[in-house]
TrEMBL record:
Gene3D superfamilies: Peptide methionine sulphoxide reductase MsrA (3.30.1060.10)
GO MF annotations, alphabetized: peptide-methionine (S)-S-oxide reductase activity
Keywords linked to the UniProt accession: Oxidoreductase
Pfam families (alphabetical): PMSR (PF01625)
Gene encoding the protein: msrA
Boundaries of every Peptide methionine sulphoxide reductase MsrA domain copy: 4-155
Function, as annotated: Has an important function as a repair enzyme for proteins that have been inactivated by oxidation. Catalyzes the reversible oxidation-reduction of methionine sulfoxide in proteins to methionine.
InterPro entries: Met_Sox_Rdtase_MsrA_dom, Met_Sox_Rdtase_MsrA_sf
Coiled coil feature spans: none
Matches recorded under NCBIfam families: msrA (TIGR00401)
Active site positions: C10
Cross-referenced SUPFAM superfamilies: Peptide methionine sulfoxide reductase
Name of the protein described by the UniProt record: Peptide methionine sulfoxide reductase MsrA
EC number assigned by the record: 1.8.4.11
């Protein structure tokens, strides 16, 4: 098993996407990149700790590659908005790839460069690519949030449309129970 760590907006939204991929064994919501040890959600939301809301994804590289995870990362959020995803605003919602090794760093930089050069986005990509220096799991109530709270208004109006779009675009990469 290998691990990928991505920050691409609210972890309630992004967790629901990555959990459905074949080869993904575990998705844990957490915080990375800040300067406060073991921060709380309230501290991270205060925009003073330097952390991003992230997913730590445990995956089987024989079933899904890091490149494929990067594809899902880039295509399921807007990497051109600084410290913002939709109505979620603040540095905790920044677009960031936290790499675990040199290979992940090179693959992320290569993918970002290719996207920039392709003109896929009207605005420049602001996603940062940083070494993972710390990671803290989010509180228990954040884990499996969409699975447990799918009918909550935020989930129904924000998370569900994102998940539905993801399922259409990546239907060939879904676990059987989501196909």
């Amino acid at each position: 098993m290998e691990i990928a760590t991505f920050g691409n907006g609210c972890f309630w939204c992004t967790e629901a996407v990555f959990q459905q991929l074949k080869g993904v064994e575990k998705v844990e919501s957490g915080y990375a990149g800040g300067h406060v040890e073991n921060p709380t959600y309230e501290q991270v939301c205060s925009a003073t700790t330097g952390h991003a809301e992230v997913l730590q994804i445990t995956y089987d590289p024989e079933q899904i590659t890091y490149d494929e995870l990067l594809q899902v990362f880039w295509e399921t959020h807007d990497p051109t908005t600084l410290n913002r995803q939709g109505n979620d605003v603040g540095p905790q919602y920044r677009s960031v790839v936290f790499y675990h090794n040199e290979e992940q760093k090179q693959l992320a930089e290569k993918y970002k460069l290719a996207l920039d050069e392709s003109g896929a986005f009207d605005d420049p990509i602001v996603t940062t690519i940083e070494p993972l220096t710390n990671y803290y799991p989010a509180e228990k109530y954040h884990q499996d949030y969409f699975l447990r709270n799918g009918s909550q208004p935020y989930c129904a109006f924000v998370v569900r449309p994102k998940v539905d779009k993801f399922r259409k675009v990546f239907k060939d990469k879904l676990k059987p129970e989501y196909s």
